[in-house]
Design a protein that fits this description.
About 60% of the residues lie in helices and about 0% in strands. By secondary structure, the chain is mainly α. Helix 2 crosses helix 3.
Amino acid sequence: MLLNSTSVMCEMTRADVCVCCWQVLEMVRPAASKLGLESPVELWGFFVQQCKQRLHVVLCLSPIGNAFRDRLRQNPSLVNCCTIDWFQV
């Protein structure tokens, strides 16, 4: 679900979320301002774009047995939104 929605459900309060967002915007402001981005919406878009470009995750699963098939059925984004490299060890 995370791969499709790009959001993580958590137990943070609204105030905590606001503080985190403000801190993120302040961290990206210097780099974004070089591109002429100043509004909070532009800064957030810049942050998301940078995350998408730089975030890489390696997930290793054994294709043996029913557990693999069940995980794929529960999380279709593992197939639809990812690059799969099949290899043998």
